[in-house]
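Try it yourself: sequence plus (2S)-2-hydroxybutanedioic acid, in.
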Amino acid sequence: MKSPIHIAVTGAAGQISYSLLFRLAAGALFGPNQPIVLHLLEITSALPVLEGVVMELKDCVNPLLHGIVVTDDPRVAFKNVHYAFLVGARPRGPGMERKDLLEVNAEIFAVQGRALSDVACRDVKVLVTGNPANTNTLIALKNAPNLGPENFSAMSRLDHNRAINQLAEKCGVLTTDIKNIAIWGNHSPTQYPDLTHAKVKGQDVLPLVGKSWFINDFIPTIQQRGAVVIKTRGQSSAASAAKAAVDQMKSWASGTEEGDWVSMGVLSDGSYGIAKDLIFSFPVTIQDGKVSIVKGLTIDDVSKQRMRLSEAELKEEKASIKHLLP
Ligand code: NAD
Ligand code: LMR
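Structure, out:
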């Protein structure tokens, strides 16, 4: 039997974790032959609820789950972990934008960045889901002097998956027939879900779906999907967020498929003229755990403008939390 991989999950008593933890315990990330140990972090007042979740995890008798650490101390939670899902943060309610959460959530990521820097494995992969995910990732990264940008990513996979689903429904094909979707920018209504490079069964998408559908239906649907789920379900997305978190971490750990890419919020290196030092979603390929921004894509003027808009929003968010950037 292989030795277990240690995975931290924050916000472990919350609604995303209620789906995420059971997927992880069932082997969703590394398959049926890789045992794991879950390190579960919560705030002190939520530990009793977490206790109930732990009972259920144990009652599932998952053979891959070789241990569970439960704590309210980030330094205990992140000790020697290989993977960290930073989910714990307040979700928005109806009528709020994700950036309205910055004030309440930002400090969490400064504290957790420092703890990861001090005690996690040096090659830890940290995926930030808690909103506003891009700027929270920047805060964590900047507070982790012993780690590097390659250790951190923000979740844009839910937007990527939403885009695949909308396109597959429109074209009447399977989601697996869709390739080369790109989400650019912030996980917010300024994000740019881009179909200009997308393919359906190897064919260019735009001539199939038409520019009007792309601009007037597809883009606003993806940009507003989170808000519409909140309005319809009464709570923010949870199962789809958990699935997206697993998908993003799995791509990061196992690599992307030949001929396709995934979308991921990473530290900008200036590609496509986007300011450095922002966590911006780009199309990326991944090999042996190394993430590379896809270079050289043709970007038309309208696409460029949309990317600039999201860049401007990320700059504003960054300015509003500059006291947390050492
Ligand atoms: P939730 O309120 O159900 O759960 C959040 C949990 O985090 C709570 O149990 C809370 O006690 C815990 N928590 C708060 N502060 C913490 C801290 N300092 N350390 C550890 N745990 C802490 O919320 P949820 O629905 O699970 O959503 C969690 C976050 O994920 C929200 O910010 C939400 O907006 C975000 N989200 C992001 C995406 C995305 O695509 N990036 C998708 C869905 C949700
Ligand atoms: C989502 O996209 O579903 C999440 O970010 C939750 C939200 O606030 O929209």
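One thing you can check immediately is this: The mean pLDDT is 97.
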